[in-house]
Amino acid sequence: MKIGMLGFGSMGKTHTWCLKNIPFFYSSYPEIELVGVCAAHYEKALAAKEAYGFRFAAKTEDEIIYSNEIDTVDVCTPNCFHYETLKKIILAGKNVYCEKPLCVTAAQAEEVARLAKEQGVTAQIVFNNRFMTGPLRAKELIEEGRLGRILSFRGTYLHASCADPDKKAGWKQNRDICGGGVLFDLGSHILDLMYYLCGPYKSVYGKSQIAYPTRLGMNGEEWQTNADEAFYVCAEMECGAVGTVEASKIAVGSNDDLSFEIRGTKGSLKFDLMEPNFLWFYDGTASDGSYGGDRGFTKIECVGRYPAPGGIFPSFKAPIGWLRGHMESYRQFLVACEDKGATAPSFEDAAHIQRVMERAYESDRLGKRLDV
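Above: the chain sequence. Below: its structure as tokens.
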């Protein structure tokens, strides 16, 4: 697999770490070569080339996309650039691994997903939280019927990155670059996790919040906040479950606080990214008794227990971390590229989440529930 990287901010560095470390963590894996890297500034691309072993640094994305030496393109650029870049990559016949959200509108996302399918390229969106051992075990329990019929859910993704009113806005807080606010950045992750575990969305009611209408912009001058700093969604799923999704960057005291609860007719699940090694499961069919019998939440030690070819390094008993989910996501994408098989989450999955977010924004504007 000959990789070309577009964008080298925090996510470009994260993806490069995954590619360089896959050989340590798996007993079998596709061969990987870091070929080209392109960043917002050529000097940054040159620095990445020297530090991480790319064969060349590119001045433009076209040097990556149309290079005969590259068969797979990794997209880590700001949201507003995805649509045109992805179309070029797909029409060039390259496999593509793209950071979320897929595009800035549902129509763009659906077009890109359709194009990828028509061209037969392997295309995956980066919803890396699916690939932590806790959510993977949660998926198993749900598919085994251990929760019964899902009745309700609650998903949250909380940061404190906009809680300081004196902090300058970054590009992810600028709707002109992102196409949205925290709903796109954090909300897409938790919306996808609920989709992954509970199925497609049927309807949404959305409400946005801007706590600090005026703050310093990226240039240090006074700026009017133009993107949501928190967003709240009440959703109904096609399976009949009803729940809430909350994304916020104004949650004082939060770090990377992604969590969810899912409750069914036979059991319940709880997960917290701040304690990523464990999944909590309540078996409602367990025997009851005077002192509770066998009832109660069980703390499942998911830790690093990835099935083969994973789990070889470090020990499967070792604690898991945020980067490990990114690595498993990337490995599954590379295997799909090599085998030319189906991949998930696909661009079709990404387009569904894009539609959900667009309808949530429209619901916020209109003040009413909307079908997805």
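The chain is about 35% helix and 25% strand.
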